[in-house]
Amino acid sequence: MNFQEEIKTIKAIIEEELKKVFHDKNGYQEKIFESMKYSLFSGGKRLRPILMLKTCELFTQEFKKYIPYALAIEMIHTYSLIHDDLPAMDDDDFRRGMLTNHKVFGEAIAILSGDGLLNLAFEIMSDFTYNNSKTLEDYRRNIWAMNEIGKYSGVFGMIGGQVVDLLSNDLHMNEDKLMFMYKCKTAALIQASVVSGAILGGGTDEDVEKMREFGLYLGLAYQIKDDLLDVKKDSKINKVTYLCFKSINEAKMEINLLSEKSIDILNTFKDKNVSFLKELVNKLIYREY
Fold first, then answer.
1. Beta-carbon neighbour count of residue 97 at 10 Å?
2. What values do phi and psi take at 16, rounded to 5?
3. How far apart are CA 117 and CA 171, in angstroms?
4. CATH number of the domain to which 244 belongs
5. Please, is 94 exposed, middle or buried when counting C-beta atoms within 10 Å of its C-beta (0-12, 13-18, 19+)?
6. In this structure, are residues 216 and 180 in contact, taking their beta carbons and an 8 Å threshold?
7. Quick one: average pLDDT of 30-40?
8. Is 160 helix (H, G, I), strand (E, B) or coil?
9. pLDDT for residue 151 is more than 80
10. How far is CA 40 from CA 21, 74, 98, 101, 261, in A?
11. For the chain, counts of helices (H) and of strands (E)
12. What is the reported pTM?
């Protein structure tokens, strides 16, 4: 199976499993299920759950049993997008070519949908831990992975990055603060994906720390690449990006350096098949809209 076929296969599995979560979900609160599904199935790349599962596969052939964690990560990512689009945040009308959630369902339901997805993510992970931990080591790893995902998506991770973004004018943004924001807002959930994958797969402490570093480099390169792709749009609204502090050539050099660092980490896994992750790095870093 080549890279594109593998992406398509994994994505299809994730889509199907996400649909199962909402099967037969109805009741007086049915509107919120409709809203949650609207954003969850709006054409996302499923990058983070794919990263989680493929990292997990490096360490165990039973990686598919940890799909609930992959679904949880995608739900957390989707909740963050719903909230990012709200008038009090980025105030966006469209995402992925579709009306944003609050434009379709109203601000109140959009807020609750984001809350619902975040809560459901942890329900899914805790249910898995409760029902599938057969040994103390199972419990330790399942809870450890959930804890890492929680920290990376919380005030010391993704939410913290969003706060810095919102207060960027008041904070007099400089390059150091911008990179802190990128580490939290973009890299954190990518780190959550690869770190939890390594933990659940049975990786050693050293393996987990290597993947933590890999996720940081990949996340930063991914965000700086976004800045390059969006340079014209961002300049029109005076958005503070990496290109406010560095030239286009310097940004390209930094992307290449971060990409090389991430590949170097993968190369340390001598006995693992890291070809998929290497290819994914290249596809993400050198992508074009």
1. 7
2. -65, -40
3. 30
4. 1.10.600.10
5. exposed
6. no
7. 95
8. helix
9. yes
10. 11, 8, 12, 10, 32
11. 14, 2
12. 0.95
- Predicted confidence (pLDDT) per residue in 155-173, tens digit: 999 999 999 988 876 668 8
Q: Confidence class of residue 73 from pLDDT cuts 50, 70 and 90? A: very high
Rounded Cα distance between 3 and 55, Å, is 15
Domain containing 43: what range? 3-285
Burial of 177 (0-12, 13-18, 19+ CB in 10 A): middle
DSSP 27: S
Contacts by 259-266, CB closer than 8 A, 24 or more apart: 259/217, 259/218, 259/221, 259/285, 261/217, 262/214, 262/217, 262/218, 262/221, 265/210, 265/211, 265/213, 265/214, 265/217, 266/214
Task: Supply angle C-alpha 181, 258, 14, rounded to 5.
Answer: 75
Token look-up 């369902």 returns 105
Cβ atoms of residues 278 and 263 within 8 Å: yes
Residues 175, 195 contacting (CB under 8 angstroms):
no
Would you say 284 and 47 are in contact if contact means Cβ atoms under 8 Å apart? yes
**Residues 60 and 201: beta-carbon distance below 8 Å:** yes
Residues listed for the chain: 289
pLDDT of residue 169: 67
Burial of 258 (0-12, 13-18, 19+ CB in 10 A): buried
- Per the structure, the count of domains in the chain is 1
